[in-house]
Amino acid sequence: MAERSAKGRFFPPYYKYPVFAFCGFELLLTACILAISEAYYKKGSIILPISYEMFQDTLDKHVPGFTWNNDMRALLESYRFKLMCLWAVSAVGVTISMLFIIPQFFDYNDARGNRSQLCLVRKKVGLILTIMMAIFVVVLGITIIWAWYDCRTAAMLFHEKFDGCEKEEIYLTKLEERLHCVLDDDREVPAVERCYFQAKASFLNPHWMDAILGAYLIGHALMILTLPLLNRQLLPDDDEDSLYGNEEKEHIEV
């Protein structure tokens, strides 16, 4: 293949090396997002319904300075819905990243019997895969920014209301049963096993979303910047497995 300029190597067709790097990063990022969003969605599905009862009970008792309304509830429900969307998008990301990486381990023949890497031999397939990955990266970014946007506001609201509400025994018992924790009056257990600590920790810390957004922006910027370095023949072909000479390789890769 005639050596392309650094600018030209930003674009398809791609060797397997940038595919490994980009999809590997995508796999790692989406796997982390998947784990975080799933864990906190499950915790939120436990703590929020009980918290709503506690907040409403406190409102009904006319506790001075305590407010609770449908807009506040909608904000917390939006937080939970966004976690579910983040989980769904990241699950798709894990799947397509693995599907895109696996074919890069094999060689493929063109119509003339020449063998090379998938995106070099099947350029249309490579272009389609590139477009699919680009669309996914944009969708993932939009979802992350959407979830990040008011995560801090939702977290502050939850902690403010949870700290200020009346904690009746009936609700604490529900928390104990659902979270498998110990009520705070037992001073012999570690703090992490107490219901109050677990309830507070069940809401996603905004710093996690800051980290996810930062990893998304910085990681993709680095991946794009390294494309010219990776999008070339970094390692020599295995001559024993090669079915073609240099002239034929240049023909299929131009």
TrEMBL record:
UniProt keyword annotations, A-Z:
Membrane, Transmembrane, Transmembrane helix
Instruction: Kindly list the residue ranges recorded as spanning the membrane.
Output: 19-41, 83-106, 126-149, 208-230
Asked if the keyword Transmembrane helix belongs to this entry, the reply reads yes
The name of this protein is Uncharacterized protein
Organism this protein belongs to:
Mesorhabditis spiculigera
